[in-house]
Design brief:
single chain, 474 residues, alpha+beta, Spore Coat Polysaccharide Biosynthesis Protein SpsA, Chain A, 2 domains, 30% helix, globular
Length: 474
């Protein structure tokens, strides 16, 4: 086995990966051998030359324009009628079992100062429900409300698969039917040193990391999840990331609009807060919709203004999509997918030639990732729908500051307070800046949306909230 592996690696100058072979047990040798054999070394060698040993240039189309989108509030009779039809169509699709939820949850909570899968992080302000529990309760209520089975597909990574499954089993799937919750792993890519050499994390393991959320589409097929969707009659996949608890998993307008417009891949957009907000930019070139990363959009375009002084490239992506199952099947029909790779320079711990663990203080390696939004230009038809930021996007990426645990909890409180006030008729005490002067939390198991609060208005009577109150509504 050693000779075959050595010959395979030597062709690409990667034979250093076997330098500790004789120190390994048979089981450890098998682990390393499998990792090496799972890699397409011809492809990886090309990627190293293109993305590691040289920095690829981002090609900005000369005819790049802002992508058109459907507005948050329809301003014409024609649009109003379309939105009404979309709501009816969305409800019909969900009620007939045509919609599945799909969460990408391969990350750890490292940036939150938390050890464990990010989905197990406790995010709600009062009951400290985990992200997974919060989504589970949303799915439970939507299933009840629309008399439907809504299967949930959760993509994990090798580093957190077992912990995630154990977490759900320990919590009895938060009341969901185990048969309707499917876990599978995304693919991995090895971390590569700036010299083009693949890094070892330990003597018997490559330094592997998830291959990006673009890998989720191929992972759906290779895991059997896509086949399972087909058997269930799923047409629409509601895609969202695990760190955004505010996302409406079942958005009837969005689902219905996607279907009525015969879109293959649809996206939610948010109006950017400024030209350099760290959101991907929805653009169009030669009739193809695309997302250009905030760091790649030239300043002249980022700062471009319309005649009313609004930003021309106003549409930012919060990574919320509806994807047609048939589209995923078409993209992955050869058990492969052709999406561009993106280079990310990272600090990656590794062992050196003497077997000593090195924790670098500066970026020492390149990770290659593919992004799901790069499937947009391949879609024959796309839809972009504007959404209200405070109703759909509260990412939990950092411990404090922007897009943090703090900001996420504040947005959850603000959204729930608004629902209680607008639909429940309660008086909400306010601070000088207009933020709620209280802490409230609505259980998604009872309150999926404002309509649910309105229906429960009678039982909320005489429960006005005072400044400083902490109240949970179940």
């Amino acid at each position: 086995m050693y000779d075959k592996l050595y010959h395979k690696l030597a062709i690409y100058g990667q034979e250093h990966l076997l330098r500790f072979w004789n120190e390994l047990t048979v089981d450890e040798q098998n682990v390393l051998a499998k990792q090496i054999n799972d890699i397409n070394w011809d492809e990886l060698n090309k990627l190293i030359k293109e993305y590691v040993l040289s920095k690829p240039k981002v090609n900005i189309p000369e005819n790049l324009e802002p992508a058109p989108h459907y507005p948050l509030n329809p301003e014409t009779t024609q649009l109003m009628d379309l939105y009404k039809k979309a709501l009816v169509e969305g409800k019909k699709l969900v009620s007939s079992g045509k919609v599945a939820a799909f969460t990408v949850a391969g990350g750890q909570g490292t940036r939150l100062g938390y050890e464990g899968p990010k989905g197990t992080y406790q995010i709600t302000p009062i009951k400290r429900k985990s992200l997974f529990q919060y989504f589970s309760e949303k799915i439970s209520r939507a299933s009840e409300k629309y008399s439907a089975i809504i299967p949930w597909y959760i993509m994990t990574s090798e580093m957190n698969y077992h912990e995630t499954v154990i977490f759900f089993e320990k919590n009895k799937y938060f009341g969901l039917d185990k048969e309707n919750v499917k876990f599978f792993n995304q693919g991995t890519m090895p971390a590569i040193g700036k010299d083009g050499k693949v890094l070892l994390e330990t003597k018997n393991s490559l330094a592997l990391s998830p291959n990006g959320h673009g890998g989720s589409l191929l992972a759906l097929r290779m895991s059997g999840a896509l086949s399972d969707m087909k058997k269930r009659g799923i047409d629409c996949i509601s895609y969202f990331q695990v760190d955004n608890p505010l996302v409406p998993i079942i958005d009837l307008l969005f689902i219905g609009l996607h279907h009525l417009c015969k879109s293959e891949m649809s996206s939610i957009m948010l109006s950017k807060t400024g030209p350099y907000e760290k959101l991907g930019n929805f653009c169009v070139s030669d009739g193809k919709t695309m997302i250009l990363e905030y760091s790649d959009l030239p300043a002249t375009l980022a700062e471009k203004r319309n005649s009313d002084d609004s930003l021309a490239f106003i549409a930012g992506s919060p990574a919320i999509h509806i994807i047609s199952r048939n589209f995923v099947q078409r993209l992955t029909r050869d058990d492969s997918i052709s999406l561009p790779w993106h280079r990310a320079d990272k600090k990656v711990p590794y062992i050196n030639g003497k077997g000593v663990k090195i924790v670098p203080e500066k970026e020492n390696a390149v990770k290659l990732e593919s992004f799901i939004f790069d499937a947009l230009p391949i879609a024959e038809k796309t839809v972009i729908l504007e959404a209200e930021r405070g109703k759909q996007f509260a990412p939990t990426k950092n411990k404090t500051g922007v897009d943090s645990v703090e900001s996420c909890k504040s947005m959850l409180i603000a959204r729930d307070a608004e629902w209680l006030e607008c639909y429940g008729g309660l008086r909400i005490p306010k601070k000088i800046d207009g933020a709620p002067d209280c802490v409230v939390e609505l259980s998604p198991k009872s309150f999926l949306d404002g309509e649910d609060v309105k229906v429960s208005k009678d039982r909320l009577k005489n429960k006005d909230i005072k400044s400083g109150d902490v109240k949970y509504y179940e």
